[in-house]
């Protein structure tokens, strides 16, 4: 059976452009650079740009380089005032699939690329490379009518219900907007369909002509969900749909999303940073770190027996709402997330990996030099378990 | 790792004693009653968690403790006794002697709590010089030392960095350094880790625990996350509609939640440990602080009102009862007055 959504080697690199303090020199060098830009549009490796990138490199300790192949694929020209200084590898070779009627949870810390992945799937961004297939159809090839049809089948619920609703649009007309945009006339008319949707998400019919500011956060998120449901999509991308809500309201929205899935068979890509919510909600889980998927599998496996040291650390960092819980053997990560503009070579997690220091020289060599292309993106899953125990014992 | 907050020992005279604290603000729409009778006691070296949802009054309570409503249109009544002295009647000028020195605060968003145009170290040194007559140089040395203690690498160099040059976790570390530089006896942490990722949150909570055991400060941890409470607190105060609805030790609040709101809060949380059952959300929404009902503030969302005779829930505001002497910890509910009825409710 082909999955509903198949994502293969999805990659999105953003150019880092100039504009940092101290880069006024190119402006004054303008006339010269302008002449050169005009002479050779699209590439402008001017001396000042090189100098700038060298200075930038100094401030970030390391040279923001990209492998020649990537650069070749993305000839990003520099303009008169801005020059390219590197690439942010927001999503770097991500593969996963979502089956019809299932939920995939995409978890990770801020900056790991989970939201970018969601935006790529919506085609709000175009991928640098890789493939996204919905029912076998490659979405990068879609144009106009094909894309419109795709957007009918894939909808999105955003994190912040206040900013994703137009403050001057009544909620009834916000929910009707997708139907009008697609030119769909449901049997019984648009208004009846909207009232039906409002009823399904727990809004009262008299809310139809009200405006977003009259609603609480939880109600606004219900409006967002009704709007996403208007076109009977096959897949809804939920980007942190409950993280702006209070606990008691969060539970209402989670239950609502689950009821909708049970009734309509819609599939969710559930992007969240709250592991407890994802564990509760998702059938499968993909854990992202610095643009890559570290571990991917059924929820009970990933949470029950995490293999990757990052998954283990992430799980043990979650505060447990149980005072009697066993808190020994916790893994604490040190330091901050490395910059995605300059990720570590080889395994991106190695700089914070609690087991790395415990590995032998040749094992470390492998971590430094090779990207682990495995289901669990770690070269040493077998070794890591026991090394982690040593590391934890040392710190306790 | 934070010291496990269980089995608090016998309570000496409380360092902080809040009695019937009320805070209200006049607005164009009427008077907003943000805090409506808050009681709290805190012993030296202990950590109390104030839990509640947005609008429950937990942040306003902590701001009132800092005396941030002096010279404003807000009305603050009740008692806030710090080592026996009432802070409520103090003027802004008198409060300054306490603020930073005896009570310090860590804010949720350090980027907006710090001045963007001054180096981080200079801001810490300034906080020190307000209360200590030392040279700028000496204060700078103290600030560098403090940055080192909160785990910022290369503190001498980072002294001259600006807030925007720090990562979120480092900024919160610097914020903690600023709050602790005068060695306050009471530290108020208002959602200190809410803006942080979970791995960084774990680091910051550990750090707070370590520094607390070094300095012996008492901590008020304001949070919406019961997980954080279970990790770091000894005592918990649950707030709803500006009232303290339940106060207990951490062990008791999870084992034997008394107030229906606390029970609802626990049931609506997805857990990482347990199996995934359907969540039990609390229906409805919190009350408007502009027009509070006469009865229990939680009555219209409470599943147990039918167990209370004479519709007392909608007519009479319950008081915080139980605690000292009785078998149970204090809770603001008519049901807890009648033990057998509570058993039926389960």
TrEMBL record, chain A:
Family: Belongs to the ABC transporter superfamily.
The name this protein goes by in its record: ATP-binding cassette domain-containing protein
Superkingdom in the source lineage: Bacteria
SMART domains in the cross-refs: AAA
Domain ABC transporter span(s) in chain numbering: 75-315
Gene3D superfamilies: P-loop containing nucleotide triphosphate hydrolases (3.40.50.300)
Annotated region (Disordered), positions in chain: 38-76
Organism name: Streptomyces cavernicola
Keywords: ATP-binding, Nucleotide-binding, Transport
A GO MF term: ATP binding
Keyword Amino-acid biosynthesis: no
Automatic annotation (TrEMBL), chain B:
Signal sequence coordinates: none
Topological type in the membrane: Peripheral membrane protein
GO molecular function terms attached to this record: ATP binding
Name listed for the protein in its UniProt record: ABC transporter ATP-binding protein
Record bears the keyword Transport: yes
Residue ranges of every copy of the ABC transporter domain listed in the record: 16-266
Top-rank lineage group of the source organism: Bacteria
